[in-house]
């Protein structure tokens, strides 16, 4: 759809971490840089790491806002290490920096242990989409969240696995009113299991 800009998101610095009960973020020097988001061996250990957006609008407004009217692909490589039935993770682009479900404009992938779900927030939270897809422990997968005027679509290894075409999902409301951030969060729930989430090769491709 015309010209696009591709933004590679670095994982080696400039992320802000908020830990509870010993959660940790590390930057691993693998084939490509990746974030290792890990919990401790105590219950309700969590970590949130966020990076403020830059360059997702082209219209002379504040640099840290998203132009939600523009088609956008949010892509990343993902892996889990150590299955934990109570673990919940989120990978989000949203106008907030807190742990948990969307409560403001944004798009997300939710990982319930190894199972994948998608959602979006417009005027309200959409109905969560079961992507009927499960990660294989210790194996990487390419994920994509595509936003356009029709709604939101999720991809797993380049195959479409779900769409949200409800009113709440179609939240194109022009320029965002507040700062937006990339959010990666991981929580081990009520267990004392230490478990890892790996995220790397992060790209945002947006319509100009």
In terms of topology, how is this protein built?
Layout: E1 4-9, E2 16-20, E3 24-29, E4 33-38, E5 46-52, E6 72-81, E7 88-94, E8 106-112, E9 115-121, E10 129-134, E11 141-148, E12 151-156, E13 159-164, E14 181-187, E15 196-207
Antiparallel strand pairs: 1-15, 2-5, 3-4, 4-15, 5-14, 6-11, 6-15, 7-8, 7-14, 8-9, 9-10, 11-12, 12-13
Shape: globular
**Strands, count:** 15
Sketch the topology as an H/E string, one letter per element: EEEEEEEEEEEEEEE
Average pLDDT over all residues: 87
Number of separate helices: 0
> What is the share of helical residues?
under 10%
Strand content: over 45%
* Largest sheet features: 8 strands, antiparallel
Nearest-angstrom radius of gyration?
16 Å
Structural class per helix/strand content?
mainly beta
By oligomeric state, this entry counts as single chain
Distance between the termini: 9 Å
Low-confidence stretches: none
Labels describing this entry:
single chain; 208 residues; mainly beta; eight-stranded antiparallel sheet; seven-stranded antiparallel sheet; 15 strands
Describe the structure.
0% of the residues lie in helices and 51% in strands. It is mostly beta strands and 208 residues long. Strands 1, 3, 4, 6, 11, 12, 13 and 15 form an eight-stranded antiparallel sheet that branches. The protein has a seven-stranded antiparallel sheet with strand order 2-5-14-7-8-9-10, with no helix packed on it. A hairpin with a 2-residue loop joins strand 11 and strand 12. The N and C termini lie close together (9 Å).
């Amino acid at each position: 759809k015309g010209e696009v800009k591709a933004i590679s998101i670095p994982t080696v610095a400039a992320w802000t971490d908020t830990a509870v009960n010993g959660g940790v973020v590390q930057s691993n020097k693998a084939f490509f840089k990746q974030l290792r988001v890990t919990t401790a061996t105590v219950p309700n250990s969590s970590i949130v790491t966020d990076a403020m957006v830059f360059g997702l609008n082209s219209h002379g407004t504040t640099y840290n806002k998203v132009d939600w009217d523009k088609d956008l692909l949010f892509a990343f490589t993902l892996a889990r290490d150590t299955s934990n039935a109570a673990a919940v993770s989120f990978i989000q682009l949203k106008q907030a920096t807190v742990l948990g479900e969307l409560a403001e404009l944004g798009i997300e992938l939710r990982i319930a242990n190894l199972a994948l779900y998608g959602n979006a927030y417009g005027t309200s939270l959409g109905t969560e989409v079961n992507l009927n897809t499960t990660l294989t422990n210790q194996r990487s997968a390419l994920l994509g969240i595509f936003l356009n005027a029709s709604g939101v679509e999720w991809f797993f290894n380049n195959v479409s696995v779900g769409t949200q075409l409800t009113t709440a999902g179609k939240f194109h409301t022009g320029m965002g009113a507040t700062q937006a951030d990339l959010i990666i969060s991981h929580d081990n729930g009520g267990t004392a299991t230490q478990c890892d989430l790996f995220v790397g090769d992060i790209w945002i491709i947006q319509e100009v």
